[in-house]
Task: structure prediction
Amino acid sequence: MQPKPEGIEYTKKIYKPIIPRTEYWPVVQLSRNKKKFIEQVAEQGLERILEIKPSRAALIEELETTLHREKLRIKQNPWAVDPEDDAAFWLDVQKKLVTLSHDTTGKTNGQEKELLRSITTRYAEEIAGSFRPSSYRFARRAITFGFARLLNASRVKGLSSLWSNQYSLQDKLHITGETDQVRALAKKGVVVMVPTHFSNLDSILIGWVIHVLGLPPFVYGAGLNLFNIGVIAYFMNSLGAYKVDRRKKNLVYLETLKSYSSLAMQNGCHSLFFPGGTRSRSGKLEKRLKLGLLNSAMEAQREMYEKNEAADARKIFIVPVTINYNFVLEAPSLINEYLKIKGQERYYVESDKYSSSYKITKFLLKFFTRGSDISVSIGKGMDLLGNFVDDEGKSYDNNGKVIDTRDYFMSNGKVTKDKQREQEYTRMLSEAIVKEYHRINRVFPSHLVAFIAFQILQKKFPKLDLFSLLRLPEDELIIPYEQFKDTFSRLRDEIMKLYQQGKVHVDPKLTGDMDVAINHGIKSVGMYHSKRPLMKNKAGDVTTEDMNTLFYYHNRLSGYELEEYV
Amino acid sequence: MSLKSMFEQNGSNKPVGVIGAGSFGLAMANMLARKNDVLLYARRPEAVEYIQSHETYKGKPLHQRIKAINNMQELAERCSVIFPIVPAANFRAMMKDLAPHLHPYHILIHGTKGLDICLPKGGRTKDMPPIDRSCIRTMSEVIREESVVVRIGCLAGPNLATELVQQQPAATVVASHFREVINEGIRLLRNERFQVYGSSDLIGVELCGVLKNIIAIAAGGLSGLGLGENARALLISRGMVEMIYLGRALGGNVQAFIGLAGVGDLVATCTSRLSRNFTVGYRLAQGETLDQILSTMEETAEGVQTVKIMTEIADNLNVRAPITQMLHKVLFENMKVEEALQYLMKYPFNTDVDFL
Result:
């Protein structure tokens, strides 16, 4: 059952909350029983690890590895958010481990499990978010109210404009796609939203989108490093975020984290993952997803089927979301990191400039006072195997036949646990998500002009590798406007064809008069960077001040095989 | 809990399904019937009736635990593991009939060694772009496209039907992305005279089975010319290289080709007169035309169609595949087998192995 392409124009809608009373929000219920929930998480984490490391010796070895890594982390990479007793706790673990590993009499049998439990409990407490409805309401209002004021102040002239309601946030941030379906699904089962990830702004944006759509807050894992930043930490804490510490890559931590995510879903909490893991460094749409958290959704679904009879088992719905920007604040540093990783050449990498409250606030001010639109496209909901579902939550196959998702987890007439099978399913799911990303991705004029400019330059110098291309001298970087317009016309036609086939989506500004669309694109691509990715020179031809960011914005359209039409 | 009810719960008393009463289908049905009840689906009602009332069919014995049926729905309802073994040309149509009755808990392990081409309705026209990977499907891909089944596997290896029926020692590969499917294959098939290996490279193993048929036709050709073992060994080893090139162009890994399903099956089909594809080549070299041969053959020689598809792929993707390209000339452009051989002997190869 392939979805049909949706109309191009944006519509502005008001959505009523699906659960008006906050005390019924799953996330509120969860934080009410927080203590019990943390115990559950710690216990399930423990069980998972014991399954992987069943013998005492193997477990002790694992604990030793964990200890070693944690000590290294404390020494080499401490963060402001780390608890004060970090060192003390691990010192204590070390003492206990020494006793355990030297014991040959068997007196301490069983104590290794207790030690493990103390670690999973500590991790579970660390991960757990603290959701407070009161601050949620405040944060939400601050965003909506504050931004609406700024917006009106900049667009409507005159002093009274500060209180005008002519424009709301939805004029800047367009929410499109399957908005009604996601609301319907949130009533039927558990929604797992999986957005693309380009900017640190994404979490706040999605939080706001969830609110506008009238959905109760989602639980999500946010990088612990974000909690280093004052403003963001406040929003995160209030929006139901739990903390993911990317420095901790040890088995014990990862399994506890998965348990947290899985149990939250099983408790009916809608969840949010960025399945690409980190922000896209290259500016490309995610092609490969991190399977860990998706796998926890798979496990949660199987456990929900295991524990409940057919009629009572709730279903998990995966909803892919793309966020489309003209401008990504962090683009210059992201693309530098990407190039460095790809790196034939040593790149001068600046520090992550925008990771301070001041910079973020400044960006937000700019964003709302000048014109740069963002659109958020909500994809069609799918089940855990990537089959599209209808508003009732029923899954369908390619031929329109209803599928019982439970059957995927069955063998010989009952729900069975098979890790390898679920890993394979997770891989299939991630492919379906990536495909949906490409389908709902909105092509902005700015994406297309960047793509065309970079491709024209690349074709002009076919013998240069990427790194030499990026270092071309200024006077080689001029593209005659007529040539540019020609190519634009051809590619726009191709994109419209893809759109008709339901393979990509387009922004309304891409349609209509060509010169207007091109000018809009050139103006808005990476508009606040100090060096412009694209601009027109005095002769009216197209040129760039920064090949790296041009490459970054160009990458957004890679993967559609448009290169051959340049 | 009684022993019997335990078995029922495990489902191990469920019959196993086989679709297709060709020679390989029959051989596999017999093999499976040594350990399980088997429901054998045959398309023609006459065939079903015949199988039910006789002890042999098409010269092959019928195990007493084999029951023939003509009802896809019943097959899907009673079996959770099904082995579709029908010619590639009929595979998609068969799946369309079966699909409405399938559920995601079904396991399908196919034994068909051919490819499916997707063409728009109304067939191919001249101004259409040439065939590439996006137009062809392996059988596992057809299953995925046509049904809700995801636990898919395939069977491949040196499994000449006649020898299997005689219960001579042999082995096969069950390939699947799912460990569960491989384990089912082993549980159902393995016996003291039949070894079962597992592989996770589903596409690679499927391609082995498909591509070796090309080389088998060529081997028949050499035999038909009365040539000896040096020539055959030359063909087998160079044929293997060609299979690897073509396989890689279609997304397979090298590993599968040097295993039982690759070189193992290749050696068996290139040396045995029992193989259908070999027979095609043999009779061509003896001077018969393709039409004459195909009209007198009882079962499909998948290799003929595979040569057609793979020649286009090779031309289109610039893959070095001289054996396939020459066979195309012999099969469809009236070139003599001798001429093709002469051409191949002049072909400027210089490196022996450059893929490892």
The longest strand of chain A covers residues 316-325.
